[in-house]
Amino acid sequence: MSRDFKVAVVVLLAAAAAFTLVAGRDIRGAARQRANLAVAEEEMPRVRAALEADPRFQNVRAELYTPQGGGLGLWGAVETDDDLFRLMKAIAGLRLRVPVAWEVKVRPAPP
């Protein structure tokens, strides 16, 4: 075998290995996302019930969150820092089986 042939084989094997690693990571990531989203759908009624149980959380909504492997997302606003703390405590108390993405803000106090 010529030297050029050996170099070509090594380059092709390295490229195939790199492609397999990248493609495998994407496949595992997609499978993890599907699994997390399925669990998030199961958990959603509990989260929504917790939000509806306290009028301070009326402007917060829960939705499926697809980035970063999937999970639950909370969006909205509350009136005070204490309300945000109580919301975080209520959600933590549910011991959810999926990650939670938080986009809940405290509204600025009126002047």
Task: Looking at this protein, list some descriptive labels.
single chain, Histidine-containing Protein, Chain: A, 58% helix, 111 residues, alpha+beta
Question: Care to describe what's here?
Answer:
This protein is an alpha+beta fold and 111 residues long. The protein has one domain: Histidine-containing Protein, Chain: A (2-Layer Sandwich), CATH 3.30.1340. 58% of the residues lie in helices and 19% in strands. It is built from 2 helices and 3 strands; from the N terminus they run H-E-E-H-E. It has a 3-stranded mixed β-sheet with strand order 1-2-3. Helix 2 (81-93) links the parallel strand 2 and strand 3. It is elongated and about 80 Å long. The mean pLDDT is 86.
How is the secondary structure organized here?
Elements: H1 3-53, E1 60-65, E2 71-78, H2 81-93, E3 100-106
Parallel strand pairs: 2-3
Antiparallel strand pairs: 1-2
Write a compact overview of the structure shown.
By secondary structure, the chain is α+β, with helices and mostly antiparallel strands.
**β-strand amount:** 15-25%
Number of domains: 1
Q: Report the sheet with the most strands, covering strand number, pairing sense and barrel closure.
A: 3 strands, mixed
Backbone CA Rg: 23 Å
| Sheet with most strands: strand arrangement | 1-2-3
Unreliable stretches: none
Alpha-beta content class: alpha+beta
Helix content: 55-70%
Helix-strand pattern = HEEHE
> Which term fits the overall shape?
elongated
User: What is the average of the pLDDT values?
Assistant: 86
CATH fold title: Histidine-containing Protein, Chain: A
Please give the count of helices: 2
SS elements, strand count: 3
- Output the CATH class name: Alpha Beta
State the end-to-end CA separation.
82 Å
Task: Indicate the CATH architecture.
Answer: 2-Layer Sandwich
